[in-house]
Design brief:
It is a single chain. This protein is an alpha/beta fold and 337 residues long. The protein folds into two domains: 7-105 and 322-332, NAD(P)-binding Rossmann-like Domain (Rossmann fold), CATH 3.40.50; 114-292, Rossmann fold (3-Layer(aba) Sandwich). It has 13 helices and twelve strands. The protein has helices spanning 17-22, 25-34, 48-54, 72-75, 97-102, 110-130, 132-140, 165-175, 205-209, 230-234, 253-262, 302-317, 328-332, and strands at 7-11, 35-39, 60-63, 83-86, 106-108, 158-162, 181-185, 200-202, 213-216, 241-244, 266-269, 290-292. Helix 2 packs parallel to helix 12 (302-317) and helix 6 (110-130) packs across helix 8. The chain is elongated and about 65 Å long. The two termini are 35 Å apart.
Length: 337
């Protein structure tokens, strides 16, 4: 460093798509203004060997989706590292226990993205209940078909949240005007977690699944794999709607297909056990009661995540409290990619 007050910052995001979209030129200039900035010159992530060369002189590491995990081996090469700042959501696969052992703060824009994912989930709920895509297809085909598929309202409906977390909390705020009755299933729910939402109560998974709308927000961990399975889906009442904006592995896809093929329930999927939907998938044949989206519920968060991280790095450099720190407890319960 040229001065003890100037930080060496390593921006690891590769050249191309993600960087172009989420770190536009005006935000890149903000990064440059924070210190001595080294920018990844490759259209790929740095290799571990490259990082071992760069980390010894690095004070702050900036990451995004697809980053290498900074485990004990890499951190042993980073004696000066003071901060990891992730410009996206979960850091479960990017940070490591070693950060908490060494007391190195970890930042994540998860709370920023959560607001937009919740907005997406609300949009999916309304589209699914009202059958909007199906009616659009009918109109474009020259039809004027009222009542097929049957439409429902969110106003006064019962809603089950499977997992709370940041997205679930934002969605609860957005559901308030709809006078919904909400049941929340989350085995890690603190006693006072729902005090801010008088219309929400805790319940078992079966209780949440019995609602008119079930929306999935749990983290992807070994514990939550296929938590929404055939048994859970059987609790859903006829005509109910399942929305998944969390991770595909939380829902047993084959069990869900078996249910939607009967026409008994409907669903909106933004995430899949394997990203993308194969052209031979039986989901594609269910046009009236299945809505498929390409994992974009949180997409509008875009550069807002980067801006929030930049603001927090500024607080760090000024010695002020940071807003986006990931506690060890939060880290342990974040989605594992």
């Amino acid at each position: 460093m040229t001065s003890k007050n100037i930080m060496n910052i390593l921006l690891t995001v590769p050249v191309g798509g993600t960087r172009d979209k989420y770190i536009p030129p005006h935000l890149m200039e903000r990064f440059r203004a924070l210190g001595n900035l080294t920018v990844n010159p490759h259209p790929r992530q740095y290799t571990r060997d490259e990082l071992k060369v760069l980390l010894p002189d690095t004070d702050i590491v900036i990451t995004h989706w697809g980053s290498t995990q900074y485990d004990e081996e890499l951190l042993s090469c980073a004696p000066r590292l003071k901060l990891l700042a992730h410009c996206a959501g979960t850091v479960a696969h990017i940070a490591s226990e070693e950060f908490y052992t060494r007391g190195i703060p970890v930042l994540s824009a998860n709370s920023v993205m959560a607001k937009y994912v919740a907005e997406g989930a609300l949009g999916y709920i309304l589209a699914g209940l009202r059958g909007i895509p199906a009616y659009d297809r009918t109109m474009r085909a020259g039809g004027w078909q009222k009542g097929c598929p049957e439409t429902h309202s969110l106003i006064g409906a019962s809603v089950g949240l499977v997992g709370l977390g940041m997205v679930g909390r934002n969605l609860l705020d957005m559901l308030r005007p709809f006078a919904c009755r909400v049941t929340v299933y989350d085995p890690y729910l603190p006693p006072d977690a729902l005090d801010a939402w008088e219309f929400a109560r805790p319940g078992a998974l079966a209780d949440a699944m019995r609602c008119d709308v079930v929306t999935v927000h749990a983290a992807q961990t070994p514990e939550t794999y296929h938590m929404v399975n055939a048994g859970a889906l059987a609790h859903m009442p006829d005509g109910a709607l399942l929305v998944n904006t969390a991770r595909g592995s939380l829902v047993d896809t084959e069990a869900l297909i078996a249910e939607v093929q009967t026409g008994r329930i409907r669903c909106v999927l933004d995430v899949y056990e394997k990203e993308g939907v194969p052209q031979d998938s039986r989901l594609l044949a269910c046009t009236d009661n299945v809505i498929l989206q390409p994992h974009l519920a949180g997409m509008p968060s875009g550069a807002y995540m980067t801006e929030a991280i930049l603001d927090d790095i500024g607080r760090f450099l000024a010695g002020e409290p940071m807003m986006l720190c990931v506690s060890h407890t939060q880290y342990l319960h974040m989605t594992q990619e």
